[in-house]
Amino acid sequence: MKHFPIFVALEGRRVVLSGGGEAALAKLRLLLKTEASLTVFSSDPAKEIENWANEGRLRLVRRAMEPGDATCAVLFYAADEDDAEDARTSTIARADGAMVNIVDNLGDSEFITPAIVDRDPVTVAIGTEGAAPVLARAIKSDLEARLPANLGPLARIGKAFRKAVEVLPMGRKRRDFWSDFYFNAGPRAMDQGGENAVQDTLPALLDKHERAQEREGHVAFVGAGPGDPELLTLKARKALDAADVVIHDRLVTKDILELARREAILINAGKEGFGPSMSQDDINALIIEHAATGAQVVRLKGGDPTVFGRLDEEIEAVMAADISWHVVPGITAASASVASLGQSLTKRGRNSSVRFVTGHDMKGYADHDWASLARPGEVAAVYMGKKSARFIQGRLLMYGADRSTPVSIIENASRPDQRILATTLSGLVNDLDASDLNGPALTLIGLAPRAAEAALTDIQQEFA
Ligand code: SAH
């Protein structure tokens, strides 16, 4: 972070600006929202600046800046849109002790003005250190659309009511009251009858929350699917909508977390790269800690929570704490992966069963019934199978599997960056080593992408 965001108290303090054109106007429009005492130096000021001076909103000095003109100023804006003049005025201002901003000159500025979303007294400042003004604008317009237009007056009224709300116990009850006020009852009253209606609604709202029963906590173990938000179930969406707390693993994508209720607390309980992961005991404790306060907890797991998700350990912990729970299934990686190949997991005459296996378990590489997996036509979905590819290849070949058995590795199934590596059992390790697959990847043994399968059959027929 090269720039540290702060909010500067400007009430009654001096801010000086040099310039009278477009750049000066843009900055002045922002500065006039503050209660600073503004002085503008310009020998050729725009009409609007003259008007503001006539209205007494700023002091206009019709000449170029001179040493001493920025004495006691906290901030100075060089806005003459002329490099030489900006350099001259900013040198004067620095000597006078002001912090300097040169418009459109990040390198020589001591501070920068962020993009601002103004819901006074709520102010959001967005900065990209000059890297991406387009991005700042996009974030600004996103926030503008998202924050109720009347958040400012609501916040002012709410602030005056804070003391009264202390009758509610600290924590969840108070949070529920405020979230009801800012996102439901407040905006509704404002729409219906303006600020007076908001004032009038507050005592009744407080009364309602005082009498509200303590809610019972609950844990929903929810499948987030393979990554594409459109592959969430409606039940998963509903659970996310109602969540107070979402505890997710690292497979859950940002797009999906975005769907959580705005006020929900998001907690990442997953491993970050090769960094330390939260232990299962810590995760269990975290789930229970939140649910015990009455929170609606969503334990959000990639894919289907019942597939290699350590679900039982969490359910048992939650049951031991006497907390209610339910499971919302999700689309598992194998389903998304096989769909991307255009294949089926089972097929009449080819395989009447399919196995979901893990590449490694708690004891290391996982052992399986290799003899049956090696049979022609068998299909297996290997989860967490990248590191164990050599082991699996070795075991299958040892048990007589055909070297040309198709194998597909699907990375980031269902996501925009999905990649498919189509190979064979004999090529598996080399092809995987040569690839740079580093996202979550599922290995499908016995299946090729449909088009490639067709090509493969042609070749085999030619050589038959
Ligand atoms: N419960 C999850 C699986 C958890 S185990 C599910 O049902 O999908 C984690 C493994 O799942 C990863 O190592 C990878 O093999 C697989 N996986 C999860 N999401 C994936 C995705 N989008 N694409 C490919 N494989 C994925």
Automatic annotation (TrEMBL):
Q: Which UniProt keywords apply?
A: Cobalamin biosynthesis, Lyase, Methyltransferase, Multifunctional enzyme, NAD, Oxidoreductase, Porphyrin biosynthesis, S-adenosyl-L-methionine, Transferase
GO terms assigned for molecular function: precorrin-2 dehydrogenase activity; sirohydrochlorin ferrochelatase activity; uroporphyrin-III C-methyltransferase activity
- Keyword Transferase in record: yes
Metabolic or biological pathway: Porphyrin-containing compound metabolism; siroheme biosynthesis; precorrin-2 from uroporphyrinogen III: step 1/1; Porphyrin-containing compound metabolism; siroheme biosynthesis; sirohydrochlorin from precorrin-2: step 1/1
GO biological process terms held by the UniProt record: methylation
Q: Which CDD domains match?
A: SUMT
What EC number(s) does the entry state? 1.3.1.76, 2.1.1.107, 4.99.1.4
Every copy of the Tetrapyrrole methylase domain together lies at: 219-427
Catalytic activity, as annotated: precorrin-2 + NAD(+) = sirohydrochlorin + NADH + 2 H(+)
Q: Where is the Sirohaem synthase dimerisation domain?
A: 150-205
Domain of life of the organism in this record?
Answer: Bacteria
Q: Does the keyword Transmembrane helix apply?
A: no
Instruction: Report the Pfam families cross-referenced here.
Output: CysG_dimeriser, NAD_binding_7, TP_methylase
Q: Which family does it belong to?
A: Belongs to the precorrin methyltransferase family.
PANTHER family from the UniProt entry:
S-ADENOSYL-L-METHIONINE-DEPENDENT UROPORPHYRINOGEN III METHYLTRANSFERASE, CHLOROPLASTIC, SIROHEME SYNTHASE-RELATED
Indicate what this protein is called per its UniProt record: Siroheme synthase CysG
Organism of origin: Roseovarius phycicola
State the organism's lineage.
Answer: Bacteria, Pseudomonadati, Pseudomonadota, Alphaproteobacteria, Rhodobacterales
